[in-house]
Structures are given as C-alpha cells and as structure tokens.
Amino acid sequence: MDTSPGRLLIQMSGPPGSGKSTMARMLQRSLGGLVIDHDVIRSSLLQDLDFDRAAKQAYALQWALAEEALKQGLNVFVDCVCNYQQVLDHGAALAERHGCTYWYVECRVDSIDVLDQRLRARKPMRCQRTSVDVFPDAAQDQRKGQDPRAMFTKWMEKPVRPDSNVIIVDSSGSLEDARDHILQSISNTREAPRASRQHLCN
C-alpha cells in the first residue's frame, strides 16, 4: 500500500447546478492534483452507448483513472453526482488502499429555483440536464414515464453521505468563501485524530 503522507481523495457531491464542478477545480488549483469529471467521460461514451450503459461504463473509467492518479502520488477530486452508497464505498476503499485521506465535500443550494436558473443558463454536455424539469436529451427514451422534477428533488433532499470527514458548504453564495472553509476544515483535521467529523458552512 502506498503510504505517501497528506494525499487526498475528495468526493464532490451535490445536485446538478450546485457548483460542484466549479468547486472541484477551485480546490484543485489550491491543492494540486487531478479532477475527474464524470460528465465528460459519460458524454464521450454516449456516442456509442445508451444513457444507462454509458453511466455504468463512466463510473468504471472514473475509478480506474482515480486509482492511476493515486498511484502517481496525486490528489484526486472525483466530480460526480453522489446519489448511491456504492459511490461512497468505492471511493473510501480506494483511498484506504492507497493510504489517502477520504473527504466528502457537498455543495448545497436549498432553492430548486436557483438550481433551475443555473441549469438553464449553462451550456450542457450531452449527459446533462437543461432544467430541473427535463431529463438530458440522451436519456429521454430510457426515462419515459418518470418525473424529472421528483428525481431531482430527491437528490436535493436525501443526499447519500458518509459517517465521517464530511464538509457541507452553501454554494448559493460566494464560492471563494466556501472554498476557503473547505481548505480550512481539511487543514484543521489533518493533524487531529481521525473521528466522525462534519463541517457545515452557512
């Protein structure tokens, strides 16, 4: 097992439009390392696969890339919607295997209207929504009969979180302030005993 000190595997979380991709890159600029963007991988796979198969393959590829980066001694920022316990378990196991500290960083926006405005304003990738009320174009056939707003609301209200090393920030305001809080929280606990810790920035 690689035991290089101080390396991090940071799992970003938050619904689409919450600012997690922007925050991942802000943290990368401060800490160094590699951002693995799940949506970039999935969108490239949609040229040959349907939406769900592309998602499954994208997760496999993101973890393979994360492991290779950790082997190279890099910090890793996993930028994906974190709706399933398997995502947490896989990331935590990967961090433990390579002697890294695992952190979960959630970007939270409590207003679904703000998230909807952000989604409508951005230029979407093929796998991304253009609104809270619309599934991605590539997913329309496989999501027939499902309620896009209800699914989105579930992501907002019932996020999947680990029991420790959790940082939750309000990303409806200054992302710079949120980034500084995240960095300070990580710095403060690097020398502290590992325990159940949760940091909330309002």
UniProtKB/TrEMBL annotation:
GO terms for molecular function: ATP binding. Keywords: ATP-binding, Nucleotide-binding. Pfam families: AAA_33. PANTHER family: OS07G0160300 PROTEIN. This is ATP-binding protein. It comes from Stachybotrys elegans.
